[in-house]
Amino acid sequence: MAEQHTIHVDIVSAEGEIFSGPAAMVFAPAAEGELGIAPRHAPLLTLLKAGEVRVQTPEGEYQSFFVGGGALEVQPNKVTVLADTALRARDIDEAAALAAKQRAEEALRDKPGHITQAEALAELARAAAMLKVLERLRKLRG
User: Fold this and answer.
1) Do 15 and 68 sit in the same domain of this protein?
2) What is d(CA 33, CA 46) in angstroms, rounded to the nearest whole number?
3) Of 79, 81, 94, 97, residue with least CA distance to 18
4) Structural domain of residue 18, as residue ranges?
5) Could you identify which of 38, 49, 74, 114 might form a hypothetical disulfide with 44, taking C-beta atoms 3.0 to 4.6 angstroms apart as the criterion?
6) Are strands 7-13 and 78-83 parallel, antiparallel or unpaired?
7) CB–CB of 38/55 below 8 Å?
8) Rounded CA separation 138/142 (Å)
């Protein structure tokens, strides 16, 4: 019975697999907005932006992961997140994220070339997304 009400989730990055297991629901930051994916969801392939992927376990608990972007594939019984970078939300280094955000903001103020500016904007978006995930986790624990 549990299999009918769950969907298998794999979250992987270049560093390796970060999560693999059943879920009652998955929430992901798609390029066009947040997606909620339930078992037997229609097939889908979309890009992800930097942000939080939340996996609701069959027991109703949530596990949070930060992804730096990537792709999401949904099949009726499986969700695969192929992330550029991924880590468990609890493993985010707040000091490093704040430092990366500050470096990116400084690079943008220095008016660099277009390629460097695009890189700085992408780094700023990743750092801001990490900090947003941390803020949400604090509110949940608070």
Assistant:
1) yes
2) 11
3) 81
4) 2-89
5) 74
6) parallel
7) no
8) 6
How many structural domains are present in the chain?
2
Residue bearing the bigger pLDDT, 67 or 94:
67
Q: pLDDT tens for residues 1-51?
A: 344 689 999 999 988 899 999 999 999 999 899 999 999 999 999 999 999
**What percentage of the chain carries pLDDT values higher than 70?**
93
CATH number at residue 55: 2.60.15.10
Residue 112 has pLDDT above 70, yes or no: no
What's the chain's length in residues? Answer: 142
Pairwise CA distance, residues 129 & 132, whole Å: 5
Average pLDDT over residues 71-88: 93
DSSP string, 18-64: EEEEEESEEEEEETTEEEEE-TTPPPEEEEE-SEEEEEE-TTS-EEE
Number of CB atoms found within 10 A of residue 80's CB: 16
pLDDT at 1: 38
- Kindly tell me the burial class for residue 18, based on how many C-beta atoms sit within 10 Å of its own C-beta (0-12, 13-18, 19 or more): buried
Q: Indicate the average pLDDT of the chain.
A: 86
